[in-house]
Amino acid sequence: MFIKLLTLFLVLAAAAAAASWLSAQPGEVQVEWLGWRMGLPTSLAVAFVVGFALVLVFFDRLMRTIRGMPHWLGGRLRQRRDDAGHRALTLGLMAVSAGEPAEARKYASRADRLLKAPKLTGLLAAQAAHLAGDHQAARRYFASLLDDGETAFLGQIGLMRLAIDDQDSVKARDAARAALAIKPDSVLAASHLLRLEARRADWQAALPALDVVSKGQKKTKPKVKSVKAVQRAALTRQRCALEFLKANDLLTKDRSTALKALVASLKTDPSFLPALIMLADLYLEDKAHAKAAKILETGFSRAPHRSLSDRLKLAWKSNDGQFIARLVKQLEKVDMGQRRMAYNVVAEQAQAVGMDGEAERLLCEASELSGKVGANFDESDLNDDARPSWQCDSCRSLNEDWQPFCPACDEFATLIWRRPKGATPFLLGTK
Question: Is the pLDDT higher at 174 or at 7?
Fold first, then answer.
């Protein structure tokens, strides 16, 4: 602004100086044309020329303004149109978020009419149609996004969700794979593909999807440490489950590969009971008692369970008295958080072989660990402790056996063997 004012001042000053100089100069300008002769003082002639030039400049600017008026008016109209279109787009997205399909479709139509932005308006229209339950229209809109590299991923994700809603696992899986091909690090697409592959029992195909999810979660840094711990635990359960289920499928086809898968599962979590039991049974079948005893002892120290203690008796090849004595000695290696549970397991084993006195002593020690000093032996304690307790980490429902999917909420690899309040569970149905 200052520069413009300074420039104008200098121009006016120069013009004034020039005019003053010309007015002080003597002389005359003569013009002769068609027999006419006209004489003008030099200063007046110069003023006339300058005035004529200014008139020409004025008319030039006037004509330019007149010619540019339609463009200016068009720009103003386009700006108003764009503003209205963006407002409709914003309101449409808000309607989608609020779950108002009618409003969303209304604003989507308005935005499409006002804006020349098919990527944005097409995505909004697809979301609105999906929300309204018009899957045919939504599928058409999402499919239109596939032609553009910038929106192809969103189009595949939309088609995947539509297929999931329609319970078309084949199309959902194809769309999820296509989305991952476009964006290989997409945790969203990988999570859905993991579940879809697991649902059709293709455990081998589900593992690469789990790898993508694992890498994605490692990159994120939740503000709350407990959130990260929960995520890590869930991924561990999923990997253990996939390796175990893969081994179960390969058991009759490729025993050596099945063994490797079981070892991989236990490497991820040495206390994963289904893998522990299966691997121990395989070792016992092969007469590899030392190997069976090693993994059973490690597993029992982390997850004391009746099914593990039953197999320890076979692995140790001991009589009843020796078996109970070795189990009691094994209690020293059990994690403190699992020790009361372990005492109850050994007490039940002692009762099963007729060693009621030892069972009572162990139950009393278990009670002391829980702060209930002086508790008397009661057979009902064992019965209560033996309740099935595979608990879903998602819906908290209890199940008798471990299963890949929770029967209640249908979530994958969420069943955890844990002690419900007031009970120490045993693994039933996996013997």
Answer: 174
